[in-house]
Amino acid sequence: MAKVTKNLSQLSIEAKEQFLDSFDMVQTDCDGVLWMLKDPYEGVAESIKELRNNGKKLVFVSNNSVRTMDDYRAKLEKVTDYTVEEEDIVHPAKVVIAYLKERGFDSLCYVIGSKHFKKCLRDAGIQVLDGPNEPVNESVAEIVPVIADKKPVGAVIVDFDYNCNNIKLLRAQLYLQHRDCWFIAGAMDKVLPVGPKMRLLGPGYYVEMLQDITDMKPIVLGKPGLAMSKVLKRKYAIENPQRVLFIGDQPEMDVKFGGISNFQTLLVGTGGVQEGDLQKYVSLNDPYLVPDYYIGAFADLAQIVRDVAFYKTTKANKL
Questions:
Q1: Taking a C-beta distance cutoff of 8 angstroms, is the pair 155, 181 a contact?
Q2: What percent of the chain has pLDDT over 70?
Q3: Taking CA atoms, which of 15, 205, 247, 272 is between 20 and 30 Å from 142?
Q4: Confidence of residue 1 (pLDDT cuts 50, 70, 90)
Q5: How far apart are CA 273 and CA 286, in angstroms?
Q6: What CA–CA distances, in Å, run from 226 to 220, 222, 233, 263, 297?
Q7: Is 64 marked as binding a ligand?
Q8: 55-66: burial string, b at 16+ Cβ within 10 Å, e else
Q9: In the annotation, is 31 catalytic?
Q10: Which of 117, 122, 124, 272 lies closest to 200, judged by CA?
Q11: 31 labeled part of a ligand binding site
């Protein structure tokens, strides 16, 4: 039987109360949910405040590791009245670091990723090899020594890199052909929505190419990776995942991540996927792509919380 998404705004007040009482933690995506590129959506700060006042813990989970932690902190401070904790800001670089440290990994990593992503790893004591960052002459004789340098690489890590090129992918391929080398993926987005009408090629395609040529399945430490889910469950001591609500704007990344984590899922329409688009995901016969709930915008949650609070007060006064 096909999964049916409930429109949160159209539920009865009793159903809204049941929804709000069903979770203790909110994990939410950032880009497309709280903001798009620069400024936060109107009403986001009010919804965060209302959810917190209702006793919900908020964690901010992004696949965008190009954005610096200072930028995340600055943006989130605006919508949390300067009360955000860095521990509650999650992106792939931090998850990769946690994963490697949990396993005592101390080998060299070849990293395809942004400057910020690589800086996070280096600052955490991870040995990072990258590049080449300069063009290589189009000659097999000159390319082979670059891509087959026989460095003692213990892990290849692939995330979003604006300057990704064929030489970097060839290097990654040759390192991965040594079967004792780990294959780790950060962000798996195949599409990066940067505006209502602009959707760019994402790093998921790089990972897919390397997976196909090496016949190696990556350890996915960005959404929608199960390995990432396990890291976050340990980090936040989540014992009952059904008491977590995951909010996102992309079914392939956010809703699927929430689904494989056994969290409840809420899709917002501000990232470009509207309620009317959900039938397409139902037809794919993958229940992880279909959210439990839909709402037009994260900002609309404030009114849901206020309505339920008023309803509960009214009920209590009648007793």
A1: yes
A2: 98
A3: 205
A4: low
A5: 17
A6: 7, 9, 11, 12, 27
A7: yes
A8: ebebbbbbbbbb
A9: yes
A10: 272
A11: yes
Alpha-helical regions (H) of 22-131: 44-53, 69-79, 92-102, 115-123
pTM for this predicted structure: 0.93
Q: Is 276 exposed, middle or buried (0-12, 13-18, 19+ CB in 10 A)?
A: exposed
Q: Which of 24, 29, 39, 130 is catalytic?
A: 29
Give the phi and the psi of residue 55 in degrees, each rounded to 5. 90, 10
Residue 130 a catalytic site member: no
Read off the pLDDT of residues 120-142 as tens digits, 9 standing for 90 and up.
999 999 999 999 988 889 999 99
Measured CA to CA in angstroms, residue 220 lies from 29, 176, 268 at distances of 17, 15, 24
Q: Is 249 annotated as a binding residue?
A: yes
Q: How far is CA 215 from each of CA 171, 178, 208, rounded to the nearest angstrom?
A: 16, 12, 10
* Residue 287 pLDDT exceeds 80: yes
Put the strands of the sheet holding 153-158 in their side by side order: 127-129, 108-112, 153-158, 182-185, 219-220
149 is in an annotated binding site: no
DSSP secondary structure string, 223-287? TT-HHHHHHHHHHTT-S-GGGEEEEES-IIIIIHHHHHTT-EEEEEGGGS--GGGHHHHHTTT-G
288-309 pLDDT, tens digit per residue, is 999 999 999 999 999 999 999 9
H/E segment holding residue 156: strand 153-158
